[in-house]
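Researcher: Please translate sequence to structure tokens.
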Amino acid sequence: MEDKLNAIVRQYWGFPSLRPEQGLVVKELVQNRVALVILATGGGKSLCYQVTGLTLDGLCIVISPLLALMQDQVQRLIKQNITAVAFNSLLLAEQKEVVLQKLRKGEYKFLYLAPESLRNKELLQVLQQVKVSQITIDEAHCVASWGNDFRPAYLEIAKCLGWLWQDPGTKINVFTATASPRLRIEIIDLLLLPPNTKLLIFPVQRSNLSLNVKLGYNWNNVLEQVKSAVANNSCTLIYSATRKRVEEVAEHLNMLGLKAAFFHGGLSKELKTQVLHNFMDNKTLLLVCTNAFGMGIDKPDIRLVIHDIMPASLADYFQEVGRAGRDGKPASAILNFSWWGLRTRVEMNKMSYENKQSALPKRNILANHWQRKELRYKNYLREADLAALLSYCTKTRGCRMVQVLKYFGQKIEPCLQCDLCLGSAAISSVYNARIS
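Model: Translation complete:
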């Protein structure tokens, strides 16, 4: 089996073999019908399910939340002489019809879909007529309704493809980069995976990533971090909480002669594509963004990730900083923490909770009662996640990587490269934090 897998990797990708962790994943995917794989950002998840798919006869469906990721992976597969296509909202009606005709004829090996595309009745009819050998659900954490990346359509995947869930000849593999023990259970439950699902959990530790927290917000501190990155010609991501703040930060940097672009969910598809291409091609080295950017983006040479404000949870934070150093070379992450930032995040969560409360149906009293209870529980989970992140930010002893992995139910030795391990963490009070 190992010789066959390595032969596929050499033929299509030109690598002598898979990485040890990738090799283990692929062997387990081949041997088990259903598997949930927790593999860190940069671990090469896509190669795992692509190689597995090439060992099987039939169509391989990949469900992904990001259009840009689909297009990128499809183009790479085509360059490697592997037939692939993305069926999504970027296609015109005529183009969709052509794709459906080719699917009927079995002309594609990989079909990439957004979960929302499974609501297309014509597509489902075609999929019922062809042999499907594998379904891959990528970024499975999007199924969690209390998370920031929640996509309601993820909850419909098992229902839409129900006949394949019952087919013993169709493999189902589910991937995500980070998942706490609670989230793993939720993924298995909400995606209707069987009790005997093979669980593959790999350490999420990134040995080349240095984690740092700056206590007490000051714009000049952020500016110095950016200038240092520019001086080293380093590719840098700057995360902030809101679209307005992202645009303000990018504008300020450009006024200072630091060429920066911005990315958030409010941009048009065309502008998103342009910004992404410029960043991927290193035409733009500074990108200010919300959490709408990054999931599944395969850019290996990001050297620094700066958080202008604290994210919503440790899981979100580690997903975002995981975009740095995917080439294995040293990379850094800096989280700028302040009580102002914490208050902003608490207010954002409160506003989201109140908006969802007001949207609940008023007529059905019983349904409204249970929906409110569920909403309160989800709000509690968000508050618990924020509390864990607060503990991480204000920690003054120990190791930051150890604390992150503890959140994910894993244990490691101190990383010896975060600010706490190196004794360079700022111990001064953050009560005087200010924003300028």
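Researcher: Any highlights?
Model: The chain has two domains: 2-201, 209-342+379-407.
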